[in-house]
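Consortium newsletter contribution from the modelling node. Members have asked for a concrete example of what our holo predictions look like. Here is one, prepared for the phosphoenolpyruvate complex that several groups have been discussing at recent meetings.
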Amino acid sequence: MAEIHLIGRAASPGLAIGPVTMLTAAVVRRAASDDPAQEAAALRAAIEGARAEIAEQIKTIQGEVADILEFQVAMLEDDALADAAYEVISEGITAHHAWRLALDVEIAGYRAAEDEYFRARAADIVDIRDRVLAHLSGVDTVARITGGSIVAADDITPSAFLAADWSHGGAIALAGGSPSSHVAMLARARGAPMVVGLGPLSWNGQPPALALVDGDAGSVIFDPEPETRRLFEQRMAAANAALAAAESARLAPAYTADGRRIAVLLNIAAPEDLAGLDPAICDGIGLVRTEFLFETSLGLPDEDTQYAVYRRILDWAQGRPVTIRTLDAGGDKPIKGLTIDGESNPFLGLRGIRLSLARPEVFRVQLRALSRAAVHGVLKVMLPMIAVPGEFDRAGVMLDAEFAALRAEGTACARPPLGIMIEVPAAALCAEDFDAAFYSIGSNDLTQYTMAAARDIGSVADLNDAGHPAVLTLIARTVEAARKLDVEVSLCGDAAADTRLTKALLATGLTSLSVAPVAVARLKAAIAKVGS
Ligand code: PEP
Ligand code: MG
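And here is the predicted structure:
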């Protein structure tokens, strides 16, 4: 059989080889009754069963994964999701059929959405559909993925991903999918290589037995010839040896080959991301995305809740600097009850600092919690999506006021230094005009605004290139301004973890990069090669 080469999009880095597991969800139907009342009751019980099952799972996990499951619980708690199903049940359709019909309409709606964020959520709705069907049928439909196998499927649900053990290798090869889906985020966090958008996985006759997945290049080879396999295994062995060497050097500070000390900081989305990590792996925390606090079904977080979370992070850092970003809602991060629905272009709308300034009653709570946490370590506060100095100044006045109010009340507090993210080309070009204590370059947004190529639209992914000379020039421009004004500058966008760009980024004069914990070893190894 000739080997099959497929090219897709890289969604999670790394190389993997393994037997192919084709994912198909087999659902066995329960014996349905012809009584609509009984069918409606069965569906209600199945929805509740699925909801309770997920709620139990949430108790055992944390961070990003828990957020994903929270989303599913919120969907299942929303009565509107099942309304259409109950309606057709009352017309005599079985619970199983009605639920599938209703959810398939939902899924089609998500898949057809213009926004890739919503398209990527389709896999969650498939997950919800199959979980409830499993409860209706009394059958566990979550596919069993054996450790180390290459999962080939149209798409994969978060449940199916989480049910598998990725600690012994394995990878994912999808006909569809998206690099910004929840599963892609999970794959990156667990270190499982993943390629999406391979197109139809159709075979003449037998499905493939073995596959090679290149999560760096975004390609998959099914049923490789012996020579192809040998060369791939050679590459894998070299990459694994390099990674093992890098892992062992993870706790050491990073230096370039020519002796330049580079600070490596962490990006985290929640304190749980730090569980089990030795603070010695980093020089501090460069970005805490606080959106997770606002994305729960419990409503906006109060001051004490926020303070407790910020304090936990500062305690972990043991005196290392911690940069916490104020809420960056809007754009690709809608938050129910806070962000504006129906903006024609949310990335150019009321997001980040613009939203915080428009909702001072919400922003002030966060500024108070941050000022209280600031007594427990070296806290820096960073404002997202700053475009003009007026925004920075207004936020500074509000921070001063909250700090003064806390002091007047006799509450322990400190006024943290206030810095800005450089994500808007206007801010990069006029960085000197801000009275900021530090800059942190958000290359994800800076790239999309410079290249006019949205970060979540797959069809313009090639243009969304942080290595483009225009983006690198804006980064260099910002570093130059920081040097002139003697303020610190770091880069915390995804470009920091893209080791193909390490040399170019350090050539701009940057000496501080902030990445997710899983990317630290790889980045330190790449830094060590610069200047050799
Ligand atoms: C960025 O834009 O590079 C950044 C770090 O912020 P986020 O990805 O959260 O928008
Ligand atoms: Mg950003």
